[in-house]
Amino acid sequence: MRAPTRTTRRPRQRARHRDGLPLGVAAGALALAAAGIGLAAPATAALPTVDVVVNGHFDQGNRMMGWYCDPGQVLPPSDAFGQLAGHPTDTSTAGCTQTVNVEPNSTYRLSARVSGPYVFAGVTGSGTTDVALWSNQADWNLLSGTVTTGHDTRALKVYFHGWYQQGPYRISSFELWGPGQPRNSCAPTPPVVGNSPSPSVSPCYLTPIPAVSGS
């Protein structure tokens, strides 16, 4: 009598993708890749370069609009348009300040055109290294420097002033160029004078950088 024959079954091989991966695994990988593409955050467009200072050429409204100045000691001169004149005293440096909106981790370039004895211009509140510039020239002089904001800095305080018991000074421009949101108009407001513990950001709009036309 013949011994019974034992039948051995081979395990069924799973269907494989042509690259060697099981079809189920390959399909899952494709699904995850598609989901990843759908969840990817859109690229953030770079902000344009603008002058974040409001009325930095002192030619809007009564020429002091947007600035917070020592009362009676910083005035528009009668003999020139687009300038301010400071008259320091024994107790005042005849200064003006403005708080401007900025972007974190960004570099801004300050420039101020001044004349007179011991004129100061600068930026504070950067969260890194602030800028302090000065000039002691009778002729017009351009002060310039750069400031880089910290990772959580969204506002800077810009300022200019003379010095105690020194002669009068003049300033014809104050600019701070860097990334910002351009706007379209500025509602005229009277100048803010006197002392305030926390000046607010001016509601006026920013000036976009002029376009350079081809020659």
Automatic annotation (TrEMBL):
Residues 1-20 are annotated as: Disordered. It holds the Pfam family CBM_4_9. InterPro entries: CenC_carb-bd (IPR003305). GO terms for molecular function: hydrolase activity, acting on glycosyl bonds. Residues 7-17 have a biased composition (Basic residues). Keywords: Hydrolase. Residues 51-163 form the CBM-cenC domain. This is CBM-cenC domain-containing protein. It comes from Kitasatospora cheerisanensis KCTC 2395. The lineage of its organism: Bacteria, Bacillati, Actinomycetota, Actinomycetes, Kitasatosporales.
